[in-house]
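BUG: 3D viewer hangs when loading the predicted structure for this chain

Environment: internal workstation, default settings.
Expected: structure renders.
Actual: progress bar stalls at 90%.

Input used:
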Amino acid sequence: MDGVLVIDKPAGLTSHDVVDQVRRILHVRRVGHTGTLDPFATGVLVVMVGCATRLAQFLSGVEKEYEAVIRLGYATDTGDITGQPIPETRSEPGPARLLIGNDAKQEIETALAPLRGEIDQVPPMYSAKKQAGRKLYELARRGEEVERKPVRVCIYELEAINLASKPTAELLKDNRDGTFDFQVRVVCSAGTYIRTLAEDFGKRLGVGAHLAELRRTRAGAFRVQEATTLEQLKVHVAEESLGRILHLPDEALARLPFVDLSADDLRRVRNGMSVKISNMDWSDGEQVRLRDEAGQLVAVATFNGADGSLHPGVVIAQDATQKS
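Structure tokens produced before the viewer hung:
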């Protein structure tokens, strides 16, 4: 049972919780994921099963897409809805003024524009990022705050959902408690903190803000439309139809170029040895899928342009003589 599952993570579970549940449902020990989602967040969690766990490095750095709700009115100590409100960030009349002015849409666009493209983000204290061997959220829970270095990320797209079609009065949802919700769609590089985007957006509007909802709709080529819930996964296992939702390792890396190996080259690759390939127009250092005669993924290699060789970096299928 080797491949990749696209799980629609429910709110309330950590990414590790989902991995544990998949492990129990499939009765498989080797299960991992390619990118953490916060417990309150939902959506695409790419889960690797069996030998596909060796492919994490090729799946975790892909771009992500999200739909989020930014709540304007106050900030929280975690940057999201799970945190405690920071009283001094409440402002009057707060975000309500955006509904009064005639230039509300322009003001919102002006606040969004500087957050697009390559930007520097300071990782939030309530994050799994490590510093001096300790996860930042562990320090935050002890009441400690340490200086963090900015990280360069790329925001490919950041836009209000249905901004053009919504009248100003509907652009911000009035929660009747002094806060207003604003929906956005984000396409970004791996490692981007959407919580930080929400806070920075609020600062540019002059109001406190935090992330109220977050749904990952895409991770690389895997979209939420093809995702499976944990309950649906149980049904597939019971009906012995797991093959309908399990992406084979080769399919999971379809974005990479490939070469089908001869029997001799296949034996060399399975033993971790390089193979020579001629007349291939690849860039030096490019990653390439190596497949057997049946089109199944055997390894992922790095192309050496100097001598036209492919060196297998990750081998997921060993020589049968080594298994006996």
